[in-house]
Amino acid sequence: MGYIDHFDYWLQKQQNTLGRVERKYNKIYGILREAERSLDEYRQSLSPEAVARVKKDFEKGLMLQWKRDGFEPADVEVEESRSKSELAEVAKARTLKIFFNIISSIEEFSSDGFEKAPDVTILTESILFPLIFEPVMRGEEAYYLDDVPYSALEVVKRGREWVQFFREAIPVAMSTPEGWVYQGLIQEWWVNDALPLLYGERDDGWIDVKPYSHKSMMKWRDEPLSQALEAPLIHDAFELMKKHGEEIYETTKLREFTRATIETRLNTK
Fold first, then answer.
1. How many other β-carbons are positioned within 10 Å of the β-carbon of residue 91?
2. Contact status, residue 142 vs residue 198, Cβ threshold 8 Å
3. Among candidate residues 214, 221, 129, the one with its CA nearest the CA of residue 180
4. What pLDDT score does 77 carry?
5. For 38-42, 131-135, 190-194, which range has the lowest pLDDT when averaged over its residues?
6. pLDDT band at residue 74 under the 50/70/90 scheme
7. Model confidence over 100-115: pLDDT tens digits?
8. How far apart are CA 257 and CA 260, in angstroms?
9. Widest CA span in the chain
10. In degrees to the nearest 10, what's the CA dihedral of 141, 83, 70, 239?
11. Sequence-distant (≥ 6) Cβ neighbours of residue 227 within 8 angstroms
12. Helix H segments across 110-231?
């Protein structure tokens, strides 16, 4: 095959490729045009009230984005338009979500991403449910966190070191009756180390808060349909986190914190 033949062959390939690209472009363009027509029809079908609602939702999302990016427009009235009860809900959910992510990050302690510690999580929850979650849900504002504390990464680091110690020293899962005997040790760590790091001070009354029993936590874990009846405050706490979770991620450093905890997992090999 001569140079001319090679060139003709190459040119034909380029023309075929260009034809495929052009056909894909036309297809995509057609889809976009159809979507635009559908959107126009949808706009025309909306009542003035519906248009106002859509506009308000859009402005609210824009304000949240600006706040996350560090802007504070003087004319932001999104927060002012919300009821006190809704703002209280968000404050509770924010604190609970921060603690939930700290607990989850301690559970996912291994750098390989496969070795986890759900047994330590259920034991930790038995301590923090009555110690933190319940007072937050009762509206005790002294327990509220406005954002992820800078010390949260250190708490996760130390918590993971405890998990690694338990894995090496104790032959049973912490969620078994045999492992549950270490509940007091974990409670002392939260009361004397982790919580003072997160809140900047220690409360002498924390050590007197009675953790949930092994029986009640196993029922919480294994019988989700009974949670609302058996532990209504804790059930409502998880519902609040679910309801306001996306907003919390958008208006706090929780997303960056979660990313940082992934990058600092322990090498357990």
1. 17
2. no
3. 214
4. 46
5. 38-42
6. very low
7. 999 999 998 876 666 7
8. 5
9. 92
10. 60
11. 220, 234, 235
12. 118-128, 134-137, 152-169, 183-189, 195-199, 214-222, 227-230
The separation between the first and the last C-alpha atoms of the chain, rounded to the nearest angstrom, is 59
Dihedral sign computed on CA atoms, order 238, 244, 248, 254: positive
231, 129 contact by CB (below 8 A): yes
pTM exceeds 0.85, yes or no: no
Exposure pattern of 165-201 as b/e (b: 16+ CB <10 Å)? ebbeeeeebbbeeebbebbeebbebbbebbbbebbee
> Measuring CA to CA, which residue among 220, 212, 249 is closest to residue 98?
249
Q: How far apart are CA 244 and CA 254, in angstroms?
A: 13
The residue ranges of every structural domain in the chain are 1-45, 47-81, 84-263
CA–CA distance, 152 with 159 (Å, rounded to integer): 10
- For residue 74, the one-letter residue type is A
Contact call for residues 206 and 120 (beta carbons, < 8 A): no
Instruction: Read off the tokens for 239.
Output: 């519902």
CB 250 within 8 A of CB 94: no
| Residue 110 bridge partners (DSSP) | 266
Q: Is 266 helix (H, G, I), strand (E, B) or coil?
A: strand
In tens, the pLDDT along 121-168 reads 999 999 999 999 999 999 999 999 999 999 999 999 999 999 989 988
Q: Please give the structure tokens belonging to residue 219.
A: 């029922």
DSSP result, 120-147: HHHHHHHHHIIIIIHHHHTT-GGG--SS
